Amino acid sequence: MSIEDDIAALKGRVQQLEDTLAIFQLVATYGPSVDSGAVPEAGLLWTEDGYYDTDIQASAPQGTHGRDAINAMAEMIARSENGIAHVTYMPAVKVDGDRAIAVNHTSPCVAVGDDVRIARISSNRWELERIDGRWQTRLRTNRVLDGSAESKEVLAQGVRDTFPR
Amino acid sequence: MSIEDDIAALKGRVQQLEDTLAIFQLVATYGPSVDSGAVPEAGLLWTEDGYYDTDIQASAPQGTHGRDAINAMAEMIARSENGIAHVTYMPAVKVDGDRAIAVNHTSPCVAVGDDVRIARISSNRWELERIDGRWQTRLRTNRVLDGSAESKEVLAQGVRDTFPR
Amino acid sequence: MSIEDDIAALKGRVQQLEDTLAIFQLVATYGPSVDSGAVPEAGLLWTEDGYYDTDIQASAPQGTHGRDAINAMAEMIARSENGIAHVTYMPAVKVDGDRAIAVNHTSPCVAVGDDVRIARISSNRWELERIDGRWQTRLRTNRVLDGSAESKEVLAQGVRDTFPR
Hints:
Low-confidence stretches of chain A: none
Number of strands of chain A: 8
Shape of chain A: globular
Number of helices of chain A: 4
Largest sheet of chain A: 8 strands, mixed
Mean pLDDT of chain A: 95
Oligomer: homotrimer
Largest interface: A-B, 40 and 42 residues
Order of helices and strands of chain A: HHEEHEEEEEEH
Helix content of chain A: 25-40%
């Protein structure tokens, strides 16, 4: 290979690493931003029309649509008088150009008095997109792990999507 | 340094970063693959003769030997009628050529009715190997953190093995 | 750009990636080192005068000052007869030369008999510094997430500090 080819190949590999870490950063920022009401950062993790497709919010049975609604959700969560932590575990990630998929577990924990309770543990598959040079969530599918085939399939699909081939 | 030397050094550093992220990916895929019965992906995280040396499976008191047994374990876990999540926390990792060590905590969480219970929290030390260009687990030592010296030594050895020197 | 410029730019990007992963490693090593009494590794995660500013230690109401005190804390934790795991979740990180900020949740889990209890869940903002080529913690602010504005502000400040701009 010529030096120019070597440099081009290195640039591609470094870009892939940067993208993977940017997606880790996005996933790791979700909890701290909604738990603290960090607006507008919470909303900027999503595309303008991003869809948080979740089965857990009694107040939003069809999930949460759009960046403004995510910001409103962060403001609502941060008003909680109990301690609350939306824990997002390290994901598996596959980047393909300006698109990426991530899969992980998440679990909100709630402090009530001296007890900390895990409210639920859920499967997550994230469809991410780079827009204006910044990774954002277009679709996050989140299902309570309750033994249902649907909740397991979210993980299984995410594993198939991200597995190194 | 010459340009050729610069490029060779960069290639080595990028390879090291790629290897570390590949091992993160492997550890992060363990839970989602066994919880969802994602076969063959669950098994491919291990070498063909990989050994999951664990003290937690009543059904396998000597741990789980070999990729086929890992796949059978994933199929068994995924049949659970309760929600179950094998959470693997971000590891510390040290790569040395085609071998690597990782250390972390893991905890399976089980949903029973409206409650989520942490079944146990364990110490883990992973011995990994690159075979055919893909990182795989040769040995994972997993001990319930119950106050015993043995369970702590798994973490202590992993910390010594992975600490930057 | 000239080849020399290309190589200089790549070196900078690779350095940034290495620094981010070094900080992941530091955060991931905290728990396994204190839970197992891995001295001196536990202490080396901090600057010599590092300050663990925490509201959780009855034995140290003003937090823990200095590397020697961190080592003493690790020795004390590792003497626990119950299983104990100081879980540190994947952080969001921003590196700026020889300084960095990280933000994450942490939660110590304690095994008592057949039960594992989350002792608390806390907000954390880490101020890190590279000294003698090794990342170390100068200040870690840790507050129990109990609904208080102060505990949320630790996360909010960390999110603002680390958000990609």
